[in-house]
Amino acid sequence: MNLNCFLLILFVCFIGQSSEEQRQAYEVKIGAIFSFGTTNGKVARIAMEAAVQDVNSDTTLLDGRKLALTLHDSNYSGFLGIIGALQFMETDTVAVIGPQSSVMAHVLSHLANELHVPLLSFTALDPTLSPLQYPYFIQTAPSDLFLMTAVADMISYFQYREVIAIFSDDDQGRNSIAALGDKLVERRCKISYKAILPPELMSSRDLIVAELLKVKSIESRVIVLHTLSITGLKVFEVAQELGMMTSEYVWIATSWLSGVLDSTSVSTKVASSIQGALTLRPHTPDSQKKRAFVSRWNKLSNSSVGLNAYGLYAYDTVWMIAYAVKEFLDQGGKISYSNDSNLDSFAGETMNLAALSIFDGGKKLLSNILKTNMTGVSGPIAFKPDRSMFRPSFDILNVVGKGWLRQIGYWCNYSGLSVVPPESLYAKPANRSSATQRLDQVIWPGKTKIRPRGWVFPDNGRPLRIGVPRRVGFRAFVSEKEGSGVVQGYCIDVFLAALKCLSYPVPHQFIIFGDGHKNPSYTQLVNMITAHEFDAAVGDITIVTNRTKILDFSQPYIESGLVVVVHVKKMRSIAWAFLRPFTPLAWGVIAAFCLVVGTVVWILEHKFNDEFRGPPKKQVVTILWFSFSTIFGAPRENTVSTLGRIVLLIWLFVILIITSSYTASLTSFLTVQQLASSIQGIESLVTSNDAIGYQVGSFAENYLFEEVNIAKSRLVPLGSPKEYADALEQGRVAAVVDERPYVDQFLSTYCGFQKVGPEFTKSGWGFAFPRDSPLAIDMSTAILQLSENGELEKIHKKWLNRKVCGGQNSEADSEQLQLKSFWGLFLICGVTCCFALIVYFCFMLRQFKRHFPELTQRSTSTRTRISHSIRLKKFLSFVDEKAEISANRLKRKRMEMENLSTS
Q1: pLDDT for 502-526, tens place per residue?
Q2: Which residues contact 125 (CB under 8 A, 6 or more apart)?
Q3: Is the bond into 445 cis (omega within 30 degrees of 0)?
Q4: Which SS3 state, helix, strand or coil, does residue 154 take?
Q5: CATH: 2.60.40.10, 3.40.50.150, 3.40.190.10, 2.60.120.650. Which one for 676-762?
Q6: Rg from Cα positions in the chain
């Protein structure tokens, strides 16, 4: 059955026929549905009546017509609210203000949609009242979506991560808290518990006590209270009686509390119960209009109730309707009604359905309301396309004194949190960065200015049960003093130092885990946290993916990662050890270049230098001697040619680099240790079939098996550093895979072993806590503080710094020098030799032409072959000839030529 028809049947069944005579044609009828016994209802009634009087005092505003306001008291009843709405629809009402609650707004909006009568509310602010579903419903105050955004920003500003929500079990309560949960998630916070209270009139003291006792047993101490005023004040009274208004707690009440304190005076008991709470109030900027209305309020209300923000919105809502009706009339619209065809089937029945009619101009009036652009007593009023208010903002207030509200800041959707009014920020660019967020100091419950921690330890402060592994090896990290039950070590000292950095005490007791015969399983240790047998775990616990899925870890306090350790041995002294610095190819190239350089220098010096002349056997000896003597310094033979000196200079530079590298490499080969196996890193282990050792209890076993796909049959469990050394020396394992901190300690104690290859995982050690534990966050901050002030390094030096065995610092042995290490030098030397030879032979060819011009002239084709042979022999003879002989021959030839010319 259609919902509207159902509502009509209810109306007729309980009320019967109802009709009213038509009012005078000059009256524009509007209605208001409220529970006028509530604070907001009282304030709204006075404000709306004052607004109607002000509108009617201007006879030109509505073209001589008058606003006629009809009030209907729903008296906390949803049913009576439906009846009131139906009565308004019978009397040709153009708009209805209300209802007060979102529960009724969801119902009456269907009626408004059917009969095209705009429904305006400044208190039904459920964020799920969508304009798509309810086009004729308009919220004339900021939606609770913005209210909850402001609350979420406050929680994030004070660095809280978990909150408890206490709310009434109605549409506005549930949907607003759902919106708060969404906004908190955006800020990496969350609602850890929802305490649901019955709607206002059904919320008994016993139910509140029962729910608050549950809240008191939860770790979180940040409470958001979103109820109606009567229930909310009861919650505060009960909370004080239960000891929940102390300095441990943070209370954030939504805008209901500011509305109550602005409009009514509370008892001393109530005032004391709300001390230190934070609340919000819709922000209404100061203006002349607002000041004038505030000054009239005592007279309008006869001092019966104080003015709050919702009174300002009520006053402006009436004016919004008046301006929209004026625009409607100016556009030629007529206030007329027509029958609803959906109700024709009920004609002639006893129910007076004919009185219900559709407002013909409802759609146009709705459009005019949404186009509102005015400045009222609550400030500028305009709507966005989604019908939300432009730039919604809230005052953030702190309850101090006897219910007195102290302003500590503002929240605006445009700029976030600030200590200056939002309207002064609109001229500046929007800036919601964390650096610009600011609030004044808060006086918290318990009259303290120290920000509450926001959470407590579980089970009412019971000392934390902290699991500590009982290690067999590597006891410098964590160990038990023999038989004393006292734990000590690097990890323990870091944990205790971090606790000292916290601003609150952490009662705790260490519980040793393990049988003392072998290292315990760290996977089992962390699983005991999820099983609630331990509240935390402290020790050399590696942060790995599987563990982070079930636990929260602190910031790592030491870096870690898996590395490979192998056995090393001293190189045996052999007769040919001096040849090891260079590879055979490098030795061969060096020898070849010695001969090449010697030959090139001999060619360049042979014609001019007597030391490079003589019988052929002597010349060969000279070349060999000259070639290899350059290795040990400048040769005995002098060089006289420029080209020869250039080649020799370059070669001596090359020899200097080669001999220096040889000396360094030979020294390294004679002193460093050499690997006893071919393992060079994790890649070598994967491709081999050798046995691999790992530390019992660590995650290395699962990593090697699951991630690297090494068969379990190859994995050998080892417990202590001595077992590491024995297994490696005896060859039972080719290598040990363990975390770097352990390996560093092992190498500092046992010589003859070495890390090979890089770390193939990157991780760290941290303290383990249950999921969403706030202590994990605080401990992370404390560890960072220890790192910055140098305390972490001091603890490291105390427990872990030891003298490292010689040769352990190098990751891998020195290797033989390859030819590629010197190819640049050889290239330079080779190019120099080639260049010198080219220049030399060009010079020789030029000299040959001067000495034997007859051999360089063109010859006939028949004698070309003989001429070439003669030229080549003559050229080689000329090159081999001593320079002085060539010069004398040339001199004689010139003299003969001169004699012939004179004769």
Answers
A1: 988 889 999 999 888 888 999 999 9
A2: 102, 139, 141, 142, 143, 144, 147, 172, 176
A3: no
A4: helix
A5: 3.40.190.10
A6: 48
For residues 421 and 483, the model is more confident at 421
Distance CA 56, CA 40 (A): 24
H or E stretch including 715?
A: strand 715-718
Q: How many residues does the chain have?
A: 903
Question: For 813-866, what is each residue's pLDDT tens digit?
Answer: 445 666 666 777 778 777 877 887 787 777 767 766 666 665 555 544 444 444
SS3 label, residue 406: strand
Alpha-carbon distance of 539 to 534, in angstroms, equals 13
CA–CA distance, 162 with 823 (Å, rounded to integer): 66
Mean pLDDT over 257-276 rounds to 92
The token pair at 216 is 């008191």
Element (H, E) at 645: helix 642-671
What is the predicted pLDDT for the residue at 242? 94
Give the three-state DSSP class for 117. Answer: coil
Residue with the larger pLDDT of the pair 681 and 852: 681
Helix ranges restricted to H, 502-636: 522-530, 545-548, 584-606, 616-629
* 89 or 502, higher pLDDT: 502
Burial class (CB in 10 A: 0-12, 13-18, 19+), 430: exposed
Burial class from Cβ neighbours inside 10 Å (0-12, 13-18, 19+) for residue 862 reads exposed
How many C-beta neighbours within 10 Å does residue 759 have? 18
Cβ-in-10-Å burial (0-12, 13-18, 19+) of 360 comes to middle
The CA distance from 723 to 729, in Å, is 10
List pLDDT tens digits, range 206-247. 999 999 999 998 889 999 999 988 899 999 999 999 999 999
Are the folds of 27-141+303-382 and 144-287+391-436 the same? Answer: yes
| Total Cβ atoms within 10 A of residue 330 | 10
| Residue 8: how many other CB atoms lie within 10 Å | 24
DSSP state of 307: -
Range of weakest confidence among 46-55, 419-428, 846-855 = 846-855
Q: Report percent pLDDT > 90 for the chain.
A: 45
Mean pLDDT in residue range 100-125: 90
**Is there a contact between 45 and 74 (Cβ–Cβ < 8 Å)?**
no
Q: In a 3-state reduction of DSSP, which class is residue 726?
A: helix
State in Å, rounded, how far the first CA of the chain is from the last one: 149
- The CATH number, out of the four listed (3.40.50.2300, 3.30.1360.70, 1.10.3430.10, 3.40.50.150), of the domain defined by the range 144-287+391-436: 3.40.50.2300
Q: Which residues pair with 357 in a beta bridge?
A: 339
What are the tens digits of pLDDT across the range 668-680? 666 654 555 678 8
* Cross-strand bridge partners of residue 694: 717, 737
Structure tokens at 92: 């040709």
Strand pairing partners for 542? 765
734 with 679: CB under 8 angstroms? yes
Query: What span, in angstroms and rounded, lies between the C-alpha atoms of 160 and 178?
Result: 18
pLDDT of residue 83: 77
Helix (H) / strand (E) containing 615? none
Query: From CA 312, how far away is CA 281, in angstroms rounded?
Result: 12
CATH pick for 577-671 out of 1.10.287.70, 3.40.50.620, 1.10.12.10, 3.40.980.10 = 1.10.287.70
Bridge partners of 822? none
DSSP state of 609: -
Confidence of residue 16 (pLDDT cuts 50, 70, 90): very low
Q: Burial level of 880, CB count in 10 A (0-12/13-18/19+)?
A: exposed
Q: CA-to-CA distance for 356 and 341, rounded, in angstroms?
A: 11
